[in-house]
Amino acid sequence: MIRLEKRAQPSQFWTFATPFLAVVLTMIVGGIMFAALGSDPFEAIRTIFWDPLFSEQFAAYSRPQLLVKAGPLILIAIGLSMGFKAGIWNIGAEGQYIIGAICGAGMGLAFYPIESVLIFPLMILAGALGGWAWAIIPAVLKTRFGTNEILVSLMLVYVAEALLASVASGLLKNPDGMGFPGSRNLAQIPSTANLEIIQGTGMHYGVLTAFIAVVFAYVLLSRHMLGFQIRLTGEAPRAARFAGVNPTRIVFLCLGLAGTLAGMAGMYEVSGPAGQITIDFNSGYGFTAIIVAFLGRLHPIGILFAGLLMALTYIGGELASLMLGIPSAAIQLFQGMLLFFLLATDVFISFRIRLTSGEAA
Amino acid sequence: MSDPLLRLSGLTKAYPGVVANSDVSFDIHAGEVHALLGENGAGKSTLVKMIYGLVKPDTGRMTLNSAPFAPSAPSAARLSGVAMVFQHFSLFDALNVAENIALGMENAPKQRDLAAKIKEVSNQYGLPLDPYMRVGDLSAGERQRVEIIRCLLQNPKLLIMDEPTSVLTPQEVEILFKTLRQLKAEGTAILYISHKLEEIRSLCDTATILRLGQKVATCTPADTSAKELAEMMVGETLHVPERATGAFGDVILDVKDLSLRAPTEFGTALKNVTFKVRAREILGIGGVAGNGQDELLGALSGEVSSNNTVSLRGSDISKLGPQQRRALGVLAAPEERLGHAAVPDMSLSENALLSAAVRKDMMRFGFVNWGKAKLYAEHVINEFDVRTPGAGNAARSLSGGNLQKFVIGREVLQYPDVLIVNQPTWGVDASAAAAIRQSLMDLAEKGAALVVISQDLDELMEISDHFAALNEGRLSSIRPVQGLNVEEIGLMMGGVHDSMEGAA
Amino acid sequence: MDLSSINPALLIASLMVSATPILLAALGELVVEKTGVLNLGVEGMMITGAICGFAIGVNTGSPVLGFMFAAMSGALLSLAFGILTQYLLSNQVATGLGLTLVGLGLSSLIGKPYEGIKSPTLQKMELPILSDIPIVGPMLFSHDPMVYFSVALVAATWAVLKYTRAGLILRAVGESHDAAHALGYKVVRIRILAILFGGACAGLAGAYISLVRVPQWTEGMTAGAGWIALAIVVFASWKPWRVLIGAYLFGGVTVLQLNLQAAGAKVPIEVLSMSPYLITIAVLVIISARGNHGAPAALGKIFHASQ
Asked: What angle is formed at CA C136 by the lines to CA C131 and CA C142, rounded to 5 degrees?
């Protein structure tokens, strides 16, 4: 019989090893799935994980895309990871992302057609503030009334989507758009465009912000008392209180930070890669970032790599759907499986597997 | 003598890294009260779990009424006539008494019939209970009754009781003993687990003593002195802490009319708690678990703020948080080691930072100096003889006694002016307990004011200068320990102190 | 706006239809949470049930087979959650989220070929005599069998939880797994069974949307109904009949909102379409402000029998 035995302390080795094990397991099961869908599994895996970076044909286009896609994922996941560490389950990053985009775009369009270098920083501020405000709603409800933040933050995603639909075909609609829903294209207006900082790399201001966020989060968590307090709150709430942590403050901090970063991510996306507010410009980054946060072990450096990996599956998935006709939904499933296998293999971190003879465990 | 009811022969059970029981053999006869005596970690619990079917022995066998007995699950043990009252109650707060009892029975009758039966049996044994009361609303003593009645309804041949008196007042202990003697007279065998020697000497016919998983002796407790029993149990001559009681200094901690609402549904409200502690004084606060001990510690440590009730050397600190109070010299060590006093999955360095950040100067502009945290953790480990490979190890990896030494040492070595501890030696072996008590007394000697909350009356009698008891969130009058007798303590714990309040 | 176009009898009849999926899913989740397990994957299991039921319904022409298969698929998905949380001791919140993401991906993968197809649907089952009662008859007693089934399931769940030993054990496990274990109950096994039941209910709930309420397959068609079911369990304070009330209230809001849209109300369409979610939040706030009474004490806690 198989029995789990708690380790005296968490295994360092497995903390690093499980994400890799999860990726390998996902590749195996994913390969079987692709085979079932009628594609050559090896070719599919290669198309997803290898071709975007190294194939002569696609790499020139795909490589910059890696940063474009990883940027928002990392930015959002960094914010989420703080909350997850503290046991605050904000799963509504998608909503905060949408509101950030709406506010940022709204700020930019309000100045149209004025051109100024001040507009873009103002848009960043508006996006951050919008995301922050949207995330603060569950924070207020949680601390004031004890309302479950999981459900509230998620419900607010649907509210944000309805709002998005409203502004895309109303308030922010392009007056010169011949009646089609969708805003003016921010990427084509010099003052509002989120441009590449280094040509041909995909490195836009959002990616830069994501990298700064990684460094900031790393310092906060490993060196600063506030980071220690966040970890305390998640691991042992009573001990946190004993250490003098104010739980209300942690809730506001974690949700506010997550909202701010998600809002900024939304703003950078809408003013750069997406270009305009449309009914469905959001592509689920807010949800995928949850996977990124866990896959990165809620650790800033881990999230950096996990974000790049997840971006790769997006690009590789598009490629696979183009070249091999693998439906894009398969990639979504692929990403979900990755999280599942990670959670499954995480058992090795705190437990040792033992084979015993018929012990009633 | 007749054949034994239960015979254990050569029971052995090993867990990775520890041998919980090694070759344990003894007999229990019908109508016998058999004590199982041993320190924490001596293997009492594992042995009992084997008899109750929760754990299977690696080797060895048991016979019940001469027939082989190897229960695969507690239900099998219950069907064979073995019942057990747990130390940490196996009760469900949100369910009522009858439902709780039904869950522990194999063939529970209908609720209404069961309720009638509960009333009947509970009155018969002098343990009255209302079957429709919610268990979460009962006192610790009443909760124990639920467990006992649950066992008695099945007419057990063997009743196992794990540390039954640790939650009772002396008066409640007397009632329990009366019930147990009645059962014994009816022919029920009782396996009585305890480390309280006097209890065993007055109640039990036979005693089996375990040390480090092995049987040391089986003897007749009435013919053996408490000192002999203790030495067999501990395996060495105990060092009893000593202190020179000097004159007390000025009042340092002054608590006036502290009242707080219950923090949770099953918590306890504090009602007009008032006391003063002077320099070099140890105030012992006794009482049955769940009478406001946790809440009192929280109000003093700063985890819960109050209004103009707690003052330090005359200045009000009741609005300050834990860190601010620490800066002023008020420290605390909560009861629950894992999850309150320490974070299980964090290293000892991180756990040192948890409460010593302010006084040991481990922060600069909010940035943590991990080097200092590690040095302080190592300092505590050395001074308090904490057995661990190093400060990098997780708190969870330490044994209960070692972690407790770390937690107490972490506060004591910050040399506070006021230290509040709750259950300083709970679940700690005798030698570690003695070391912890000595450190508390040394701290008082150096001029600190101490509040020691504990359910262990012997401990409080040993180290405190004054004694008071908590009952349902009220503090009894405060009495000097010298000259206090068990009856008086019992009355104080039982809440019969209203008449004394005027005198205090 | 023409409010007279809204027929109250029809409104109530369509309210019951609209509420049934949420009712089924919430009832399943209630049983799961009663054993102390929080499965946030309801949405994922629902949408998987929706497509699996739809696919079988279309391919066999039998909606009944579709429902059965949907229940099985929901249960199968929930089993993955059960194995992860109960045997591999993963975090329930994270695993539930993962389950939702997997379910959404899986359903849109399976669903691609089925977009735009109409499915066979359940026939109305007019209850004899009762359905002939004027007004009340068409309102309450001329529905498809699943509506009756869902109400019967509420009654059954209530009775089992309240009056049977199985129900008592189930509640006990959710109150304190350690105490239940000490008494010798198989905590993990009981929880797995409850999780399977919850998965099957969510599967049925999804299939009801794709086979009866719409009846068509579109990607992401559950549109948060699984999450609302979770909220309704909280609203109901973990009591089966209150789940019924909660689901019907919610169904009422949804139907009224749709009717107002159809009637051309002056309120912007976006406000109407976000109203169910806003109302859910409002209700959650009101309930939590009162204190979450009745939550199983061990909800969401990980159980590991150490010795």
From this structure: 35
> Which amino acid is present at B75?
S
User: By CA distance, what is C181's nearest residue in A?
Assistant: A361
- Specify which residues B470 forms β-bridges with: B475
Ranges of chain A whose pLDDT falls below 70: 1, 356-361
Mutation choice for B interface testing from A1, A218, A228, A242 by most B CBs within 10 A: A242
Count of pairs with CB atoms under 8 A, one residue in A, one in C: 136
CA distances to A24, C41, C46, C204, C229 from C103, rounded to whole Å, are 21, 8, 8, 14, 16
Q: Which stretches of chain A are assigned E, i.e. beta strand? A: 2-6, 196-198, 203-204, 351-355
d(CA B447, CA B442): 9
- Alpha-carbon span A238 to C67, nearest angstrom: 46
Report how far residue B41's alpha carbon sits from residue C285's, in angstroms, rounded to the nearest whole number: 48
Q: Flag if C90 and A344 touch (Cβ within 8 Å).
A: yes
User: Angle of helix A300-323 relative to helix A59-85, nearest 10 degrees?
Assistant: 140
Residue B99 contacts C, CB cutoff 8 Å: yes
Alpha carbon distance B44, B50 (integer Å):
10
The number of residues making up chain B comes to 504
Whole-complex ipTM: 0.86
- For residue B497, the model assigns a pLDDT of 52
Q: Which residue of C has its CA nearest to B111?
A: C163
Q: Across the interface, do C179 and B46 touch by the CB < 8 Å criterion?
A: no
Cβ of B414: how many Cβ atoms within 10 Å? 18
Give the count of Cβ contacts less than 8 A between chain A and B: 81
Listed as ranges, residues in chain C with pLDDT below 70 are 1-6, 126, 136-139, 292-293, 305-307
Interface membership of C190 toward B (CB under 8 Å) = no
Tokens representing C274 are 């976000």
Encoded tokens for B23:
């070759």
What is the set of domains in chain A, with CATH numbers?
1-37+331-361 (no CATH), 59-326 (1.10.3470)
**B31: CB partners within 8 A, 6+ apart:** B184, B185, B187, B188, B189
**B251-340+417-501 adopts what CATH topology?**
Rossmann fold (3.40.50)
Please report, to the nearest 10 degrees, the dihedral formed by the alpha carbons of residues B92, B97, B99, B103 taken in order: 60
Closest Cα to residue B160, out of B217, B90, B86? B86
Query: Is the model more confident about B168 or about B294?
Result: B294
| The domain over range B6-234 is classified in CATH as 3.40.630.30 | no
Contacting residues for C260 by C-beta, under 8 A, at least 6 apart: C1, C6, C267, C272
Domains detected in chain C: 3-118+141-289 (1.10.3470)
Contact A223, B368 (CB under 8 A): yes
Enumerate neighbours of C (3 or more CB pairs within 8 A).
A, B
Write down the residue that tokens 């003016």 correspond to: A184
pLDDT value of position C4:
63
- CATH 3.40.50.300 location in chain B: 6-234, 251-340+417-501
**C277 to A4, A93, B486, C169, C221: CA distances (angstroms):** 42, 16, 63, 35, 15
For residues B298 and A173, which has the higher predicted lDDT (pLDDT)?
Answer: B298
Residue C114 and residue C59: Cα distance in Å, rounded? Answer: 10
In degrees, rounded to 5, the angle at the alpha carbon of residue B37 between the alpha carbons of residues B36 and B42 is 105
Residues B366 and B357: beta-carbon distance below 8 Å: no
CA separation for the pair A24, A43 (Å, rounded)? 16
DSSP letter string over A121-162? HHHHHHHHHHHHHHHHHHHHHHHHH---HHHHHHHHHHHHHH
> pLDDT tens digits for B234-255?
776 555 556 666 688 999 999 9
Query: Are the beta carbons of A232 and B343 separated by less than 8 Å?
Result: yes
